[in-house]
Amino acid sequence: MTIRILLTVALSMSVFSLPGSATADDHKLKTVKEVPKGLSPEIEKLLDAAGHQIQGEEGAVVELWLLKSLPIKSNFKSSASQLYPFTPGQLLGAMRVPKGAEYTDFRDQEIAAGTYTLRYGLQPEDGNHLGTSDTADFILALPAKHDTKPATIEDFYELSERSGKAAGSTHPAIFSLLDPKEAGKETKLDEDESAEDWVLTFTVKGEAKGKATEVRIRLVVIGESEA
Fold first, then answer.
1. 3-state secondary structure (DSSP) of residue 86
2. CA pair distance 153, 167, nearest whole angstrom
């Protein structure tokens, strides 16, 4: 009788620990319909009001908005050194970290509650960054109060310094972009269990030489480098 009871308890416990069951690390994707406060009027008017909200067990973790239309490099061909048809330093959108949320970038740097602009960047090709990411494409967050003009920030060091203020660090606040060729057509939030990352896949509207186009984006919204 004792053995039978122990077996029953063990089997019951195993049911509740099966792989794929809901955990505290589950996240969901929702839509928001108002741009965040704290942006300059010049940047705010460029944003699409429909944004993406990532929710955790205790509420919203981060919210993202993209521009209504993004300038795209014409005749762009992706390569190992650059996957996306953007210009380094160009404005992509905005981000808000809600009060009370615990949010970190791809380097596990804490990002305080507040509003940030988002700009495109490429990882430097030097020994300090070897092996830190599978791709060289990143999105950088800049505190909105330190980034009020939509124009591209062409100087790499200026871009990095301003972004570092988002993390209170000398290193920019970065979020990894993954290969868009692996993206499906639907907007979704998936967990990459092999890397323990959460990846947001979505489409942005673009324009190259007056011609409308679309760009698929895969962004690590929650997760950090293993290097």
1. coil
2. 19
**187 closest CA partner among 66, 89, 70, 101:** 66
Bin 150: left if φ > 0, else alpha if -120 < ψ < 50, else beta: alpha
Tokens 């599978």 belong to which residue? 134
Q: How confident is the model at residue 30 (pLDDT cuts 50, 70, 90)?
A: very high
- Tell me the C-alpha distance between 68 and 74, whole Å: 18
Q: What percent of the chain has a predicted confidence (pLDDT) above 90?
A: 75
Give the count of domains, the chain: 1
Contact 53, 30 (CB under 8 A): yes
Chain centroid to CA 225: 13
**Residue at 182 is within a domain:** yes
Domain range for 56 is 25-222
Within a domain: 19: no
Strands (E), the chain: 28-32, 51-56, 59-66, 70-71, 91-97, 103-104, 110-111, 114-122, 137-143, 173-178, 188-192, 197-208, 211-222
Say yes or no to pLDDT of 1 above 90: no
- Strand 59-66, strand 70-71: pairing: unpaired
**Over the stretch 197-225, which tens digit does the pLDDT of each residue have?**
999 999 999 999 889 999 999 999 999 98
